[in-house]
Amino acid sequence: MPPRPRSGVAGLAQAAPATGLSTTAGLVMTLLAAVLLATACSAGPGPAATADSAKVIAAVGAENEYANVISQIGGRYVQVTAVQSNPNTDPHTFEASPSVASAIDGAQLVVQNGVGYDSYMNKIEDATPNPARKVIDVQNLLGLPDSTPNPHLWYKPSTMPAVAKALATDLSALQPAHAAYFSARQRAFDRSLQPWYRAIAQFRADFGGTPVATTEPVGDYMLQAAGTRNLTPFSFQADIMNGVDPAPQDVALQDSFFSAHKVKVLVYNQQVTDSLTQSFLSAARRYGIPVVGVYETMPAHYDYQSWMLAEVQALRRAVTGNVSTEKL
Hints:
- The chain is an alpha/beta fold.
- It has helices at residues 25-41, 51-54, 64-74, 98-105, 120-127, 138-141, 159-174, 179-192, 194-207, 220-225, 234-241, 248-259, 275-286, 304-321; strands at 10-11, 57-63, 78-84, 109-112, 134-137, 211-214, 229-230, 265-269, 291-294.
């Protein structure tokens, strides 16, 4: 049996008050300067690396769900840093810090989401070029265009098996002697997703067509796989996701889903709420509509598989028992 994956990854998340991923060219130059300074400061002689430390691959996951999967596939041969790991902050307001640039500069392997969700990664990678660095861009891995409207790819059931396969390939290229180890862990990871897949299939069989409302498209891929019918127009979800005030008629339509009991569940982004989304939560509670919180960043005490399974279980409890799960 392969060794258990490391139980945690280092985090470098930093919330910023600005709106959007606002890493500018000037910030990238500042980060690059910090990296170069750190390199210069460490140029002197130091203790020799041990044989074990020489085998460890430095890896970075732009979001902690990807970092978690790196850790599961790489096991004892990887040291993983998660850039975004705080489930209490809005990933859309993230700004990279010099420590993030330093981690990426030293990484042999990087996994990032793409679709504009973590574009700061590309800017730092361009500013700290390394032709030997393996970069898995999940958007490119899945063959998705830049115009893909929903960037929350980790909720798509087909995403992480593809990531795990790419990880096993790249890790094996970096350490060919351990290729069998990485391949075995990839197969074990794929098997560990089966409870999630079964829960999705069972929900679809039992409750396919269940009408739901959402605030943002965070969990939409999973809701689609589970066979729900999302009554909230995508344009409305996108407005909230992008910080745009929705049209008054769209707000009225969303409110009517609760007052007229047209939906069985409200699924909302637990990490990001404002006065408008709070008003929907209040309306849902007032009319007895259960609510289910979904996350953009993997919450504490979960791995990727248990997190995804918990979300489907929360959805099922909402439909069968009118039970709200606002926070995992």
